[in-house]
Design goal:
Blueprint lengths: L1 H24 L20 E2 L34 H4 L4 H4 L35 E2 L16
Antiparallel strand pairs: 1-2
Bound molecules: heme C (2 copies).
Length: about 150
């Protein structure tokens, strides 16, 4: 009995010594630096301005958008992209017209108008930021496009 109490006391003592040092080891991902120490404002990323079409990397790739699209609204009543890219307007806007593939439904049936699945252009076509890549990349386009 006496032995057990001594053991308990020793354990308690050890726990008291161990606990504060354990608490000190808990760190946030940022470490123990102050919030504003060594912080830099994030780089401002610019959308590429109007440019020539960007070369594709594989044949079926939705081409990247070589111009700014901020403020180009797409909702169920209006699609700003089509004011330049539709078959009615492309000539005047000197833009590329939406290709015939965008007039097919998912079963390959030809439609008289743009397929609803292609209406929200930015699901597939994305604009580009003028910024250096975060990680290196040795990707090369498929042979047919080199
Ligand atoms: C004010 C007219 C205008 C609007 C609005 C517009 N575009 Fe464009 N777009 C252009 C022009 C001009 C080009 C370049 C054509 C060229 O140089 O061959 C272009 C190029 C593109 C290309 C590249 C085509 C290729 O063959 O590489 C894509 C993709 C594209 N636009 C998508 C969009 C999307 C998506 C929207 C809506 C968010 C949009 N555009 C809105 C005028 C416009
Ligand atoms: C589901 C994905 C998807 C959506 C949504 C989509 N596209 Fe595309 N788009 C593609 C793919 C893939 C290609 C390349 C293959 C092809 O021509 O079909 C392409 C090609 C294009 C091209 C190049 C045509 C050429 O002759 O080189 C233009 C311009 C374009 N799309 C405009 C648009 C516009 C404008 C919208 C919205 C009204 C739109 N796309 C919606 C996938 C999409």
């Amino acid at each position: 009995m006496k032995k057990n109490i001594t053991k308990l006391l020793i354990l308690l003592g050890l726990a008291c010594i161990a606990f504060p040092s354990y608490a000190e080891e808990v760190k946030s991902l940022r470490g123990t630096r102050d919030l504003d120490a060594g912080s830099e404002p994030p780089e401002i990323k610019r959308l590429i301005a109007d440019d020539r079409p960007i070369p594709r990397d594989f044949v079926q790739q939705p081409p990247l958008i070589p111009h700014k699209i901020d403020g180009y609204h797409i909702d169920k009543n209006y699609n700003k992209c089509l004011s330049c890219h539709s078959w009615t307007n492309y000539k005047q806007a000197k833009a590329t017209k939406v290709p015939p593939t965008h007039f097919q439904d998912r079963d390959g049936n030809e439609l008289a108008n743009l397929s609803p699945g292609r209406y929200f252009c930015t699901l597939c076509h994305v604009s580009q930021l003028d910024t250096s890549p975060l990680v290196g990349n040795e990707f090369e386009p498929v042979k047919a496009l080199r």
